[in-house]
Amino acid sequence: MLPLMIDMKNKQVVIVGGGKIALRRLRLLKEEGAHLTVVSPQVNDEIKNLAASGKIVWKKKEVCTEDIKQAFLIIAATNDPNINEWIAGQVSGHQLINVVHKAEIGNVQVPKIVKKGKLIFSVSTSGASPLLAKEFSEKFASLIDKDIEKKLEEYHQYREQLKSSNLSEEERKKALKQKLDLDKL
């Protein structure tokens, strides 16, 4: 697996299932601006409320091939492994699929993600232990203080200013390196 950062804004995402794991994935993807459709005969109250308020689409039914045909990303999160595996078998080569009960049959895994301002990091155990990934990421996140978040924001603004300057690329790199000064972090 290759870790990538993917802009999910306005991407079509179908989540099949309406339980706790489906909701976790939904929250994550909603925060990133994806267009979300949940396909499930039953969903939990939070998913019902999101659908009632028009923030997501809920198809109250069993999944069929037509439901996932146009999706960029499909999350197979039902409580039935046979349905999840069937969904994985329906995706085309250009679609991404996360199968929550058996990550290895999908082509995407969702790591534990931590955001601290502009700093984003993720931890994966390749499906071996989501609990360990969560614990490790929480320990690492506790090492990051507000000063680092603030410095990263300042660095970003400085970098944007340098991009529009008349400095050569080499001069910009030197200025950025001096501004960052890793010894002070």
From TrEMBL:
The keyword Oxidoreductase applies. The keyword Repressor does not apply. It catalyses: precorrin-2 + NAD(+) = sirohydrochlorin + NADH + 2 H(+). It is an enzyme of class 1 (oxidoreductase). Its EC number is 1.3.1.76. It holds the Pfam family NAD_binding_7. Keywords: NAD, Oxidoreductase, Porphyrin biosynthesis. Gene3D superfamilies: NAD(P)-binding Rossmann-like Domain, SirC, precorrin-2 dehydrogenase, C-terminal helical domain-like. Residues 169-185 have a biased composition (Basic and acidic residues). Residues 163-185 are annotated as: Disordered. One of its GO terms (molecular function) is ferrochelatase activity. GO terms for biological process: siroheme biosynthetic process. Pathway: Porphyrin-containing compound metabolism; siroheme biosynthesis; sirohydrochlorin from precorrin-2: step 1/1. PANTHER family: SIROHEME BIOSYNTHESIS PROTEIN MET8. This is precorrin-2 dehydrogenase. It comes from Metabacillus arenae. The lineage of its organism: Bacteria, Bacillati, Bacillota, Bacilli, Bacillales.
